Structures
1.
Amino acid sequence: MSLLRKNSTEEQLKAKSGILRTDWDIDEIEALFNLPFIDLVFKAQSIHRQNFDPNSVQISTLLSIKTGACPEDCSYCSQSAGNDTSLEREKLLALDKVIVAAKEAKDSGVTRFCMGAAWRNPTDKSLDNVIEMIEGVKELGLETCVTLGMLDGQQAQRLKKAGLNYYNHNLDTSPEFYGTVITTRTYQDRLDTIQHVQDAGINVCAGGILGMGETRHDRARLLQELANLSQHPDSVPINDLVQVQGTPLDGIDRLDSFEFIRTIAVARILMPKSYVRLSAGRVEMNDEMQSLCFLSGANSIFYGERLLTTDNPIENHDDVLIAKLGMEKEKPAFAN
Ligand code: SAM
Ligand code: DTB
Ligand code: SF4
């Protein structure tokens, strides 16, 4: 019996019993990547519609609450102090500014508001300020997400107590390729933060970036690390590298679109109940490519003309695309 056949029988049995696998072998994942494109997309879409409404897309808006001057050396990032980008630095935003932005997001139909800070990790004092922001955004009836860098266990507990819904912390790439992208924090540091978030009972948002010069094996290893966490992340952002002038990765060859779509499809198959977020890089994707990503199981996006520091499609463009596809923006899943 071929590897894929055997696996698909095992997968069917596990899917029937409702078990989410956290024991994926790299060979199984690479075999999925190697499927004919149509077979892979069909498999991903079949699994997708067993678990989600295939015509629904969850939308979140991002806001950078502290911009630039980051001590980390992530070679893709506009915000690293070591990268000579033209980004304007900004201290932590005042609470009222954050609330104004969250209200605007709510009025545009968004269900989740994500706040990002260019920190290696928050200090306990800066966490006090972020907690005020989380409380204020929740009062508007929005779900909250923050991405603040590394957390210790106590900080994760404090965020949980404040009612935070999601914490975003990405693995970024495979453990093997990681050292060529970032040297100032380890892969294990990232896994530890994700564990603290999970232990605190906060929904985990963890994914990575494609198109940084990694191989297909690295993409498979990234997905393996995510799918074999003790619990699948609730949300899996797949970012296509946004090339920023002044960063070491500016000018690198762009990843082939079909390879990006394949990665989305494999993420959907490995983590059938997680939201797979088509994240950064959508301005460089045409509507047809984004539609193939949805067909392959992506079911959430960032909405609004800005990501953290770079451009995202304007709202009207996304609204037109969502309408053309007969899709709908997901309604809030629960009251806060
Ligand atoms: N400083 C925090 C951290 O790194 O954990 C939070 C903010 S950071 C900007 C959040 C994530 O955005 C990164 O982990 C990375 O995966 C993604 N990201 C940053 N710059 C990007 C770029 N140029 N293209 C694609 N994704 C990017
Ligand atoms: C994630 O995985 N992608 C978002 C969110 N999590 C915080 C950030 C993308 C940032 C893209 C580059 C920028 O705008 O600075
Ligand atoms: Fe700093 Fe986050 Fe950018 Fe890395 S990705 S340089 S930690 S803001």
2.
Amino acid sequence: MPFQTRYTGLIDRYRDRLPVHDDTRIISLGEGNTPLIRLNNIPRIVGREVDIYVKYEGLNPTGSFKDRGMTMAVTKAVEEGSKAIICASTGNTSAAAAAYAARAGITAFVIIPDGKIAKGKLAQAMMHGSVVIQIKGNFDDGMRLVKEVADEAPVTIVNSINPFRLQGQKTAAFEIVEELGRAPDYHCLPVGNAGNITAHWIGYCEYSSGSGDHVTEACTFCKGHCTYAGGAVVGNRPKMVGYQASGSAPFMRGAMVDNPETVATAIRIGHPQSWDSAWKVKEESGGWFDECTDEEILAAQKLLAEREGVFCEPASAASLAGALRDVKNGKIPEGSSIVCTLTGHGLKDPETAIAQSTRPLVNVEATLDQVKRAIMDNM
Ligand code: AN7
């Protein structure tokens, strides 16, 4: 028999660490198994001896890390007999919900802030046939409405308050440990609702405990769905570092923010849903929160695209912007290994990318002469 290598998604790959049964119908689009790319050029530019890797979650099926959580959430919703799912979203959750609902043959209702989601994400939600409800309000208003409506209508919430979401998302940490042979010293993420930073910590804790035993009361995060045994840590765990956009930084203010604003619309979130657990993650891991200005975020997005050939969306670049600053100021010491999660693909938001591209387009007639001139002038 030939060795079968077809990759069939993260639930199949990490089945023994996820809350599924042998006969569960898996709703998958082959998510997970994303590249961990070592940065070659940027550390040299920064002039520090550090190993920086980017986990390119933009290469998931719908272009963001949300697919990891959505394969679990939709699989469980279908298993429980649900015919419809609902979420509030700054864009990526709605894209993933729409796609996985299409795959499962159920209906997705998505609530998005009017005019404040990137074009690519809107295109996805519409194209996959979800019911797109635009509200005159922001993500936080949408989240409140989702909770209220789910109390009265037969719909399953697939925002990250659905515990199966974090179970799927924790697998990113598994992949990183398996690829590096150990956990990194620092793991940097952009923070909005703080679901993903929590999910990664669950994953690192579970993996480092080296146990498949389900001792639920030991785990403060998973609400009973992970395999973290607690106590005996046999592997290393990273310091978890969360970066927010300055105009949308409740973890820096120490309080909810009512009118969040940032160019990084994915993390335009003032009332994070995983508030308590994110603080615990920071404390347990010895990490910290910090903020980046929109200018820093866009500069990091551009640096990564121009110097490494990796295109992420603005929110994702907050992880690198913050990490580079903390490498330069010594908070992250030389000799460290760092993973930055690039949560979403740059193609999600072409308008912001084009608007911040400084190189002018070179417009010429369709003649050899003019094209040659354009090349010589720009060598
Ligand atoms: C690219 O899609 O909340 O801290 O509704 O799309 O786990 O919320 C998106 C969040 C980071 C923040 N980067 O993750 C949504 C949504 C990107 C994102 C985050 C999001 P969390």
